[in-house]
Amino acid sequence: MKNVIEKQRCQVCGDEMKGRRDKKFCSDQCRVEHHNFQNRDVSKFMTNINNLLRKNHRILEKLNPKGKTRVSKAHLLDEGLNFNYFTNMYKTKNGKAYYFVYDQGYIEIEDGVFTLVQKHEYVD
User: Fold this and answer.
1) Side-chain-facing half-sphere of 35: CA atoms under 13 Å
2) Please, are residues 59 and 79 in contact by the beta-carbon 8 Å criterion?
3) Rounded-to-integer distance, Cα 56 and Cα 59, Å
4) H/E element holding 84?
5) What is the pLDDT of residues 11-44, one digit of tens each?
6) Considering just the CA atoms, what is the radius of gyration of the chain in Å?
7) How many C-beta atoms lie closer than 10 Å to residue 72's C-beta?
8) What are the residue ranges spanned by the domains of the chain?
9) By three-state DSSP, how is residue 52 classified?
10) CA dihedral (78, 84, 86, 90) positive or negative
11) What's the first-to-final CA gap in the chain, in angstroms?
12) N or C: at which end does the chain have fewer Cβ atoms within 10 angstroms?
């Protein structure tokens, strides 16, 4: 009885592969295509929300280049910030809430005035 060596095939295009036994893709192109397919947004709904979050992040990052600043609500709205979309919220001991879009956040400090902050890695 002979040992039959099964030829490996690329998971994306099915081409025969040479090289390591644990290899899954025949080329970088197939590897990237596979991972892009795995990480695609599963629906238009998710794509739209992710786009809104990215837009909010860009706005906050642009208006807060030094890590902490004050800005009016009108200015935030003029830039296009959508207050309904944020990634997490942090409540202070006195009950006020910071709203974060990834590492960029804001808190209303008085009527119509917000402080923009940047969350650092050491802050949970």
Assistant:
1) 7
2) yes
3) 5
4) none
5) 999 999 888 888 999 999 999 999 888 877 677 8
6) 24
7) 11
8) 8-40, 53-118
9) helix
10) positive
11) 62
12) N
